Amino acid sequence: MKLSLRTQAVIGIGVIEVVMLVVLLYSVFHFIHSSTREEVDRRAQSIARIFASTSADDVLSLDLGSLKSFVNAAALTPGTAFARVVDYEGRLLAEGGNREALMLPFEETSALKELPNIYMARADIVKAGTVYGSVEIGLDVRKQKLGISTLKDRSLMIAIVEVLTAALFSIAAGYYLVRRLSGMRRVVQRAVAGEASARITEPFSDEVSDLADEIDRLVERYEWEKSRKNERILRLEELNQLLHKKIAEIQRRT
């Protein structure tokens, strides 16, 4: 199958553009996802540790009223879905926050899993090296996930527009180049057909114009060789006629 130069240019530029964009988008998406996850994990662990440190005395004294007030205040923190305090045997001491989030079974979010809607973290309540309980918190990260999804969609749209723009540019460049080469081919065909005045007109100075100059010189050389050939033929015909005359004269004398 014969592919035109324009088609080859479009395919080549398109493949390179797509490969580069895939690599770039993968790197950007991976960076956004990992940086967002690290930030959420850092925030969740920080809140849990501060909460555990602050509530340690109330857990030791079993001041449930203070713990209840504390978890309610913690749950009102922007982005916090729930807060919970349990003792060392896992018995609930106090909890507060979104009811739906509180109904979810607590499972500390693993770094290997996809980012969930509720990011859960735990911190132990430790005094003098003894664990008296733990603090469990959940962060609502739906806004962050929505932001990541929106950013991905916009990035994909930009990538599609860029690929289409590159394709249009390559089509235009290929069309312009093929048009110039087609003009050269027509000039060569006219020269071969006997039109000695056929020349290539190139308005720009580049590699294609250099090729056009070489073709013009080749056409001139071809015309010169053709004229020289015609001159030789005429000369041979004259010599042949002269030879016939000489032979005829010799025959008459004999």
Automatic annotation (TrEMBL):
Keywords: Coiled coil, Kinase, Membrane, Transferase, Transmembrane, Transmembrane helix
GO CC annotation terms, alphabetical: membrane
GO biological process, one term: signal transduction
MF-aspect GO terms: kinase activity
The name this protein goes by in its record: Sensory box sensor histidine kinase
This protein's record includes keyword Kinase: yes
Organism domain of life: Bacteria
Transmembrane segments: 9-32, 156-178
Residue runs in coiled coils: 219-253
Domain HAMP: 175-221
